[in-house]
Each structure stands twice: as structure tokens, then as C-alpha cells.
Amino acid sequence: MKKLFLFFSTIALLISACNKSKTDNPITEEKISSPKIPKAQGTPRILFIGNSHTEYFVSAPVLFDEFCKANKKPMNIDQLVTMGVSIDKIYADHKAEAEENFAKTDADGNYYDFVVIQESTPVALAEPEKYEANVKMITEKLRKNSPDVAIYIYEGMSPLAFTDPEYKDYFDEIRKNAVAVTKATKNSGMLRVGDAINDAYNGKNNYKYLVANKDNLRFGENTLHLLNDGGFMQAVLLYATIFDQKPIIPKELTLSTGTGDDDEMEKQEISKAISNSKALEEIAFSNR
């Protein structure tokens, strides 16, 4: 199933790449403001909206839940995830569930306190108008009963390998579009996954991404998905971005056993499953 999905993802990405517009303008380094977090009565609630970059070899919702539990920060976690599609199609695929949840109310005035919105790579890279429209559509639905929800726009990654000569062009473009959508979205901030992955590739904090000549952060061809190192760093980044503090790292997390069709996620020791957890933790925290 994973191989079939990767095939179709590759085709979609190649089509989008043909239409990709490049820019020579440097990416702005100005500070992107963080969203104001609403006051919650009882346990806060977070919603993940995304595709295979939210959950594939590793699961952002599962890892975030494990970090929250290890750090004694109770959190209710919901997700709307469909592999290989954009936000509008994720919503269509989960419409009944989404509308049921969006109609729920909470005593504090916000059913959802946090939401992470991850757009598909082809749209985030090459269709900025659709990207912004999709985010606007879903946030308007969310805000009916969660008017003060803190929104985090997932900054995607360059879909190409770090060694590809066009890696940086794609990184710059996808980052530029994420910044623009974040600025256009009320009470939002950016979950800087792409920046953190880029820092790791560039050896920040002495992290080395190559292990036995294989990329230890991501796996794939034209659409690369996070492996254990990348998923761990993403989870630390999400925790640090929301709570503005480093998490206590649990001894075990639910991580991938491999990239084959028969592999799955299961509890594993951090010391064995992650190549350099300290370096990845520092990279994540610096990108919060």
C-alpha cells in the first residue's frame, strides 16, 4: 500500500513541478508572531489536519500525545488525516466527522484550542492561491465554535533529496508560501518543520543525517516522508512551539520499525531508534 501511494505521490509532484514558478527574491527572516492561546477550562483539545506528512512512517498525533503524557500536560487529540490529498479533499473525505466535531461547543467558548494544518506538498509548493483558500475554508469552519483557536500552519519540506541541486529552490518556495499563508491567517503561527529539517541536513548542532550512506531523516523518491529521526524532531518542535519549553524526553516512543510494507509503528527505546536525539532536540527548540 505504501509503495502504491508513493507512486501516485511521485506522479502528482512531477506534474506540479512542471508548473512551479521560481523566485529570486530572498526569503524574509522577519519574526513570525505566535498565536494567542485561548484559556481552556479542563483538558485542552488539539486537531491535526493533514496527509502522509502528518502520519505515515511515524505519526505526529501519536508522538505529540506521548510527549504530553510524559510531561504531565493532558491533551485531547483529534485528527483528520487522508494520505496524498490537499486540505479541501481531506475535509471532503471526513466531512461527516468534521462537521460533527466543528458543531461541538465547550464551556470556555472554544471546542478546539489548537489546530495544526498541513497542506499537500504540490499545493503548498506550486498553488499558493489554493493553499490560502483551503486554509481559509477550514479555519472558517473551525471558528464557528472555536473562535479563538490557536492555528499552526505546517511549513512543508523541500520534496527533493538534500543532494539534489534544486533542493534549495524548492525549500525557499515552499517556505515563502507557508509564511504568506501564516500572515494571512488570523491568530496563527508557523510550525517550522521545513526549517528544522533543513537545519538538520546542514549539520546544525553537529547532527549527521547520513547513516551508512542513507538519509536518516526522510525516505522516498520525489515525495520524502519523515523517518524516526525526522518524526522525533517534528514532535519536539510541535511541543516546543505550543508550550515554549523543551519537553522531558521519554525513554520510549512509538516509532517505525522500517520502511517496508510489513513494517509498522511500535514502542521503541529512544537511545536505539534515534541517531542523535540531543542534537535533534536542540534543532527543534531553536525553530520554535
Polypeptide structure, described:
The chain is of the alpha/beta class and 288 residues long. 42% of the residues lie in helices and 16% in strands. It has 11 helices and 11 strands. The protein is globular and about 50 Å long. The chain starts with a helix and ends with a helix.
Q: How many strand segments?
A: 11
List low-confidence stretches: 3-28
Backbone shape: globular
**Strand order within the widest sheet?**
2-1-3-4-5
**Count of helical regions:** 11
Q: Summarize the main sheet.
A: 5 strands, parallel
Give the % helix: 40-55%
Q: How big a fraction of the residues is strand?
A: 15-25%
Work out the radius of gyration: 18 Å
Order of helices and strands: HEHEHHEHHEHEHEEEEHEEHH
Whole-number mean pLDDT: 91
- Spatial gap, N to C terminus: 34 Å
What structural class do helix, strand and pairing data support? alpha/beta
